[in-house]
Amino acid sequence: MTSAYQQLTRTFQRLARFGHLSAIAGWDMQTMMPPAGSQARGEALAELSVLQHQILTDSRMEAWLEAAQQEALNDVEQANLLEMRRAWQQAALLPAALVEAKSIAGSRCEHAWRQQRPANDWQGFAANLQEVVRLSREEAEIRAQAAGCSRYDALLDLYEPGMTSAQLDATFGDLLQWLPDLLERVVAKQAAEPVDMPLGPFPVAAQRQLGLQLMKLLGFDFNAGRLDVSAHPFCGGVPEDVRITTRYNENEFVSAMMGVIHETGHACYEQNLPKTWRGQPVALARSTAIHESQSLFFEMQLARSAPFLQHILPLVSAQMGEQPALTPGNFVRLNQRVKRGFIRVDADEVSYPLHVILRYEIERALIGGDIEVEDIPALWDEKMQRYLGLDTQGNYRDGCMQDIHWTDGAFGYFPTYTLGAMYAAQLFQAVRRALPQLDKQIAAGELQPIFDWLSQNIWRHGSRFPTAQLIAQASGEDLNPQHFRRHLEQRYL
Amino acid sequence: MTSAYQQLTRTFQRLARFGHLSAIAGWDMQTMMPPAGSQARGEALAELSVLQHQILTDSRMEAWLEAAQQEALNDVEQANLLEMRRAWQQAALLPAALVEAKSIAGSRCEHAWRQQRPANDWQGFAANLQEVVRLSREEAEIRAQAAGCSRYDALLDLYEPGMTSAQLDATFGDLLQWLPDLLERVVAKQAAEPVDMPLGPFPVAAQRQLGLQLMKLLGFDFNAGRLDVSAHPFCGGVPEDVRITTRYNENEFVSAMMGVIHETGHACYEQNLPKTWRGQPVALARSTAIHESQSLFFEMQLARSAPFLQHILPLVSAQMGEQPALTPGNFVRLNQRVKRGFIRVDADEVSYPLHVILRYEIERALIGGDIEVEDIPALWDEKMQRYLGLDTQGNYRDGCMQDIHWTDGAFGYFPTYTLGAMYAAQLFQAVRRALPQLDKQIAAGELQPIFDWLSQNIWRHGSRFPTAQLIAQASGEDLNPQHFRRHLEQRYL
Ligand SMILES: [Zn+2]
Ligand SMILES: [Zn+2]
């Protein structure tokens, strides 16, 4: 007889297979597809997503989930069942009409935003965003009722299961105590340390070659993945075949180099997820925040450290040509430059959390119903002034219209960037305790012990443990922003 | 109320969307996928193919097909309904167990063949092939009963609907009357006309550039397609986004050049299929043989003609460097060389049909039960001797083990190559009648009138007409091998 749990594993394996096709067709759309394929691809992917939703919300699913809880399951199976229930609930809670309305409103808002942002057209954008917010509140209300939590917490849980706005308030409140002042001091200090900018052009072929060499150094398995080009860099594909992308600018190579390193962090996590449970939810990455912790571990903790930068400088010089900017001291300063700016995605690791906290405060109030869309610009201006000392009045395009997230109703996503940065710092300290010769090893390019540690403590667990437990097991304590503070102080002061 | 015909069009649109994903994931597997992705990709595509089969054999399908025949349908809709019924019948006739057994036996036979062919291991191969033949006969028997025809004709119909072995016997019989003798004379004539071989190396980048230029000349729409590399060249993707491939050898550029032109013929057919009926069976290419007629029209009729070769020689010289072999006379001789050989895929257009007829005669007898697998080598040797004057005794690897088709049970496919060649010759003569200045136009690179004619007479019709009608409308007569004969005589004697 087939147990309910077996019915579920079969169903989720089927879903994983369709997810595989969706991931590859989605990657192709961003990297390979010629323009005329766009409409047919969109329709094909939408058809697949309808099918995936049908399978996940099949009428037998609830009974299987109930019955499986009575079956004899080992620890991993129980963790898998928990993830199955999460996936089912996420899909099944919302009425189909709301899902469709949200998808249409999101597409419309995003599509129009692509023109409205360059045109600085806040009024036009606000009209579409209102509809997205209205539907996101509806979604949040339904999820909140089911989970017995606040609206915003219900959305947050989609990206970082178990996280609450109470914990974020505490953690981000801690950061706000010391980060603006730290930023001030770092900027003042660096004002006295001029940086030579590398002189291009830097041919795409050389940049790609350097990217591939760095991926190799960082343990990327080319037997199970690729590097390509797309307008917006991402890490896609499936754990068996991870596809990362970057974009090249021949005038400047550091962005693509660090972008490749960042995506390689995401990729190594994917490539080293547990193989035995493949196709099951428990084998998937833990959460958006843990994913980002791995990319930021690679980029911020490891790759922007002086020992790592000194180790790779010969590779960089070989591809880009020796020049005054590519001396050890200047190369480190170049990659550790801190600068207040309007744009989140261009921000360094010191100012980045302030961009995130600003958005978190606004979106939490927006979903909670404390503010409306028309209140956003004034709040944005005020917070940018307070946290970053910048004037954004009237500059919507580089202010509250700069991100894609809200256009699609992805409220609750922003905090994961800074959670990831804090997890990364905390994990790196744990690695440092485990490897007393860490800096020497990094300077010598002996990175395998680091990857072994990450594999042992994070990668191989997939979604087996809740985030809090995963972090506590790996680092010996709960999320603690003091590790992030210490990291910033030691690197920048 | 939704009519039965509307139910059907919805179902087939859904199938087309899933087919889109299958085509792109299949293309990716051949061109982009790293090795470790192979198993997961195979499983994902198999899951999709199970789904497609389920949709196509849905229990309501037969009733819809019956009911739609009573509904008021226009000509195109009626043609579409006919194609729907064909597709349904192809999928629904066979018991699921047979489909699965055939798929397993085919995979096993093909997989082992990849080792057995280089090892010249006929005995090992024969054991697997017997099982494939047994299951193919079973399939043929079921299809033959339903269609009221012979077993072999039932399989032939899968690749060239409406074609029969009676017509093939007549047509191929005609060819056998004059082709071996013609081949003899051409070989003798060319013995007195030495050819200079181009001296390489020919860098891949230059070969790719030439390929792209020729695709452009031949009307390929790069807004709706791509050129990539794969081990076995093919034309894949979907009409909105056609993906052709080639492979490069730096010692020799003509094969890749002609390969690209061949696949461009397939691609232009796909890109110019009717847009109004997109997603419906009637909008698809007519048949395997008509598809091949378009690639052979491009490659054999057009591109190996002296005016075309003279027109492209400057492009070729610009990429490959001027050299004695790239003078007008030699370049034509090089591309019109006829040579008896063991290998079908390397054959010129004069000897190619003899390779096909040999296979046709063997596979027809095999499916009919007149011979068994162990009889194949002796028959192969005898026919190779008779048709091509070559001794293949004991050389299975370059004899009856050289092709992949039988390993997968694709009996009935081979004749479409030569049907395609004959259709191509017949259509080219029709173009010549329509365009009295044809050779001058080709020599001047004015090819648009040819594409317009093909679009008007073949491409835009999709599967609206049966092949025989399509050919008769386009050329004014039924399939007539004399056009092929005249073409060969005029070019080679
Ligand atoms: Zn990231
Ligand atoms: Zn072909």
From TrEMBL, chains A, B:
Cofactors: Zn(2+)
Cited function: Broad specificity carboxypetidase that releases amino acids sequentially from the C-terminus, including neutral, aromatic, polar and basic residues.
Binding site for Zn(2+): 262, 266, 292
E.C. no: 3.4.17.19
Active site, UniProt feature: 263 (proton donor/acceptor)
Protein name: Metal-dependent carboxypeptidase
Catalysed transformations (reactions): Release of a C-terminal amino acid with broad specificity, except for -Pro
Species of provenance: Mixta tenebrionis
Taxonomic superkingdom: Bacteria
Segments crossing the lipid bilayer: none
GO BP: proteolysis
Record-level Gene Ontology MF annotations: metallocarboxypeptidase activity; zinc ion binding
Matches recorded under PANTHER family: CARBOXYPEPTIDASE 1, METAL-DEPENDENT CARBOXYPEPTIDASE
Family recorded in the similarity comment: Belongs to the peptidase M32 family.
Cofactor note: Binds 1 zinc ion per subunit.
InterPro entries in alphabetical order: Peptidase_M32_Taq
Record key words, sorted: Carboxypeptidase, Hydrolase, Metal-binding, Metalloprotease, Protease, Zinc
